[in-house]
Amino acid sequence: MIHSLFLMAKLSEDQLQKISQWVQEGASLSVIQGKLASEFGISMTFLDVRLLVDDLNLILQEKEEPKKENDQNSSIEENT
């Protein structure tokens, strides 16, 4: 945990705000990891990105899983 706090201290306020924006836009941890590298030249492990997001008290948006065709058919059958 100390490691992620150290990483957070190395990031500028603008960079921290950008990370928050990415999370609000629904970016996954791997997308955030890639953007940190491409936009800021900061290489972080997946775990470090996860800990950073957690330390910033940000909540990742869960993607809705697409419904399977069987689920849709079963709900139609239940209504008939």
Features:
80 residues; single chain
Summarize, please:
With about 80 residues, this protein is mostly helical.
Largest sheet: none
Shape: elongated
Mean pLDDT: 82
The helix/strand order is HHHHH
> Strand pairing plus helix content: what structural class?
mainly alpha
Distance between the ends: 55 Å
Total count of helical runs of at least 4 residues: 5
- The figure for the number of domains is 1
Return residue spans where pLDDT drops below 50 for at least 5 consecutive residues. none
Work out the number of β strands: 0
Helix coverage percent: 55-70%
User: What amount of the residues lies in strands?
Assistant: under 5%
Rg, rounded, reads 18 Å
